[in-house]
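User: New here, please read:
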Amino acid sequence: GKIEEAIALYEQSLALSQQIGNVQAQAQTLHNLGFLKANSGKIEQAIAFYEQSLALSQQIGDVQLKARTLNNLGEIKVYRGEIEEAIALFQQSLAITEKIGDVQTKATTLNNLGFLKANSGKIEQAIAFYEQSLALSQQIGDVQLKARTLNNLGEIKVYRGEIEEAIAFYQKSLAITEQIGDVQTKAMTLWWLGHIAEQQGNYNQALDYLQPALEILQRIQSPDAEKVRQMVARVQNLIRNS
């Protein structure tokens, strides 16, 4: 519904800016269309829009838009498992943001690079990227990015067996997500806290985290809902048998 309406508006805007030859507006609108198509799962269309936006932003020298578009293309490459290409796009984006002082895009790109490094087992590099992202997100007051980065740091702490530190990161993230209504990150954080509590044998506490996580995931129709439903059932079983 709403995404389709927004796409229709942007398509009208694009036609108009093409008609009057406003390349800046075209580049921005193509970027916005790419973002909406990516969010509605139309990946090929998203890439086509982003690539058109990228070509125009290069043509007119809009480096800020170029950096943002490179970052978003990188996120799509991650989604498709094209990791080397993603890293190259993020590195290009990062170089531009450092040059022009675009702290917002820089913070997001650092978080994305941290995620990729963590996934390829380069933990120290991942932590360095995450900590830089965290410092910048605090500096500019981007609480949503801060919550996501705290979450990512929490995962690394779990991986390294530093459980108390992990819990502290997740609790901070949870407080932010509740404050700003970011249900997706909140569900993820609750899942991790539930997972840790289950591992520690605190089954009732695990349920206190997992049940609200499940409710959110079912409400937003997430494909992860089934996995969490199975976890809830398993923990309920453990409580019955303990």
DSSP finds twelve helices and no strands in the chain.
